[in-house]
Every structure is written in structure tokens, then in C-alpha cells.
Amino acid sequence: MIKNLTISALLLFSATTGLAQGESTLYKTIKENYENKADSMVNAFIESFMIKNKGVFNDMYQKYAFNAYWTQAHAMDVIVYCYERHKDDNKALANKYKNYMSLWYSNKANNYAGAGTSDGTYKMFENPFTDDMCWITLTLLHMNEATGTTKYYTAARGIFDNYIIKRAKEDEETGGLWLPWNTNGDGNGPNACTQSPATLIAAKLYQKTNLEKYLTYAKKLYAYTAKKIVKSDGRVEEPPLTYTQGTFGEACRILYHVTDETPAIKNRYKTLAFQYISYAFTSGRCTNGQNILRHEGTSGDQSIFKAVLIPYAVNYVLDTEMPTSNRKAIAEYIQKNTKTLYANLKWDRYPIVFCNFDWTKPWTGEDKDASMGAMCSGTSLLENTARMQKAIIESYQDYQDIIEDIPANIDIATTTGVYTIDGRLVRTPWQGTDNLPKGMYIINGKKVFLK
Q: In a 3-state reduction of DSSP, which class is residue 182?
């Protein structure tokens, strides 16, 4: 009977809602574990492109670019994800990566325009390009989430409050907000590469602070983008690019979790999160026609686009409130890309390793032409695939531990539903609790009194 479940099993099952429906399915997608390969790739990325005494990255192999700023956000994000994966099992390696974060911060993420700290730590990251500040802000938030270091959050919130959102302009037609791309002339905006990360920042700040102003900003930035930029077929912009597909998809996913709107609107955010991310892996505009992310260009900007998409696609896969079939599809696309890329890497000069712009082909160019952006995209793919697989494996193992404690007469597939105290199922998870007689029930593994 359910009342005989141990307290620990109840709490664990409550914390892993969706395991019965999803984790076994996702676990079966894992044909090869990429953790060790990701470790090697991250090390090669650092050795080949990082200026290790500054924590920032060269634009090309052994070639520094003073104005490479927004790309530093995504390069450091890879290090942060690897830190998170190892902070509990390899303290020495995690501390090494944590130190790189500190150096990156102290060196203003290579900001060529930022002043000192006279107006607060956020002043270090001020830049004429609004989108550059948005990407840096997202990485600072990620660093805070990973390490708990307050200064990263303080700087991130300061950048948004003092520079990003103050540039926003009201749009009467949509009731939304739009941001100029930069402060030069007319600002060349609005565009998806500014609106998408700004929407995500606002939603994440609301998650962190519970201050309504941030939710309002997020909804208004989203409203303008949804009504004036995105296309009905799943393109976030024209031409569709992987980084804005992923970022706006992630913004929608977070809005689903934090919004105070109706269930219908919440579910629309959920639907759109999948639509935008899925488009990047299924459309011939973003792939080679076989679900492999395409060559998007050789510049430092273009070559790093895929590094932005991949972590957000993994976040979608790991979100148990997203539909299992959708999560499985994205997980399989990610792993197909990883297998393809890895098969085309050359390790004979390790730790010097380069990624091609096209993941279906090995790098055959000269060292001087090797791109940090391309290497960042490839390293992000391996690191985030490892992150995804580790989380799926651990969740599946937790699920296996739980079912050992659940008596045979309890249907695992509906244990997250509504039960009477004596263990009788009265509602499946999708039926809710409307019109139930008042009394004590066990709902999703917790005792609840319905009045």
C-alpha cells in the first residue's frame, strides 16, 4: 500500500515527477556515454584557445582579438557546465574551472568598451551593443547558479537594470517592449538576437527575485518578439539561425514555469519552446537535411551559434514537465550530432584539437585559421551531451531505486496521481483534483488536505 512507502522514497518520487512516464524512455536513447570524451574535449578547448592567466579566449588559434566580447560568454559557459558536472566528484578539476570563472570576471570578459567599477561592478560589462551585454549577463547568471558567488549575480542584475532595460522602447501596437541592437545612430533594431536573450534574462531574474517588474519585462519583450519578429512556421527570425531558435525557445520554457497567466497561455509557452528548438534540428534551413546542424558561416560570430542552441536544447530534454515524446526526439537529435562530430575529430596532436564549421567533415585547414567559435560549438555539444546523459542515467537509477520500495499493487505509471490515505487510486495525474470530496489525500507523494 502507498502508506507503507518510506519517507525518503516519497520525497524522491515527488522530486522526480515524470520519471515513470519519461526517464525509462530517455534512458533507452543512450547508446554511448560521452563523459570521458567531453572531459578531453573541454581540456583541448582550454589548451588550444584559452588565455589561461586571464580566463578569456583567443578568437583564432593563438590569435587574440581585442573586440571579441559576446563570444566570451558562450566559451565560458562551456567551462561552467563542466564545473557543474564535476563539482561533486572531482574537486581539484572543479576548483581549476572555478578559478577560470573568477579570472574571466576580473578581466571583464574581454570587454573592450567597459569602464572601471565606479558605478558598481556592472559597469565593467557596459557595451554599446545591447545583445553583447545580454549574452554576458546570461553567463554571469549561470556562474552564480553554479557557484553561488554573489558578485556574479550582482553584476548581472546591475547590467540588466542599468543598461539593458533602460534602452527599451514601448511599442503601442503590440503593447510590448523592443530593444535597439546598439546605441549608435538609430540602434539598428529591434532584432531576435537582442530580444531573445533579454526576454530570458528578465524571466530568470523573476525566478530569482520574485519581483513582478521582471516578469512584466519578460512578458513585454516576449510580446513584441512574438508579434513582430517570429514566423508562424517556427522560425524565430529570417534567416533562421540556431542561436536565436534556442534562446527564444528557452525563454518560452522559463516563461511556462514562471508566468502568472492562464493554463492555456502557459501551455502555449510550452508548445512554442519545443517548436522553436525542434525547428533548429528538423528544418532544412538549420540542418543538412539529415538533422545535423549546418555550417552557419566561418566568422567568429557565425561559428559559435550552435554553442548557444545546444545547452538550451539539453535544458528542454531535462525538463520533466515537457512532453516525453518531445524530450526523446531532441535527445536523439543531440546525440546524433555528437556522434557525427566526434567521428570527425582528430586527436593525433592532443591537446591541440580543432573542430570544423561543418560537423560532417574533419578540420583540414591550417592552424592559424582554426576558429574558437567552431571549437566552442563542438565542445559545447560534447559537454552538454555528457551533462544530459549523466542526468538521464542518474534519474533513471533513482527511479529504479524508488520502484523497489513500491508494493506490487501500486501502478507505477500513476503513482504521481491522487490516492486515498489507505492507498486507493482515485485520480490519475491528468485528471486533477476538481470536485473531490474534502478530506486527506496523497497527491504526488505528499499528504494534502482538500477543503
A: strand
pLDDT for 114-142, tens place per residue?
666 556 778 899 999 999 999 999 999 99
Per-residue pLDDT tens for 35-91? Answer: 999 999 999 999 999 999 999 999 999 999 999 999 999 999 999 999 999 999 999
CB atoms within 10 A of CB 186: 8
**pLDDT > 70 in the chain, percent:** 87
Alpha-helical regions (H) of 111-211 = 130-147, 150-159, 192-209
Report how far residue 450's alpha carbon sits from residue 433's, in angstroms, rounded to the nearest whole number.
9
CA gap 101, 83 in Å, rounded: 10
Alpha-helix residue ranges (DSSP H) falling in 187-304: 192-209, 212-228, 242-258, 263-282
Question: Residue written as cell 549608435?
Answer: 184
Helix, coil or strand: residue 277: helix
Sorted by where each starts, the structural domains of the chain and their CATH numbers stand as 26-413 (1.50.10.20)
Positions of E strands within 37-168: 50-51, 56-57
Cβ-based burial of 279 (10 A; exposed 0-12, middle 13-18, buried ≥19): buried
Containing H/E element for 44?
helix 35-49
Residue 152's contacts (CB-CB under 8 Å, 6 or more residues apart) are 101, 105, 140, 141, 143, 144
What is the phi-psi region of residue 314: left when phi exceeds 0, alpha when psi lies from -120 to 50, beta otherwise? alpha
Please report how the helices 150-159 and 91-106 are oriented relative to each other, as an axis angle in degrees rounded to 10.
40
Report the amino acid identity of residue 411: D
Contacts of 217 (CB under 8 A, 6+ apart): 165, 168, 177, 202
For residues 160 and 94, the answer to whether their CB atoms sit within 8 Å is no
Instruction: Report how far residue 153's alpha carbon sits from residue 143's, in angstroms, rounded to the nearest whole number.
Output: 8
Cα–Cα nearest to 304, from 372, 249, 247, 208: 372
Burial tier of 8 (Cβ tally within 10 Å: 0-12, 13-18, 19+): exposed
The overall pTM is greater than 0.70: yes
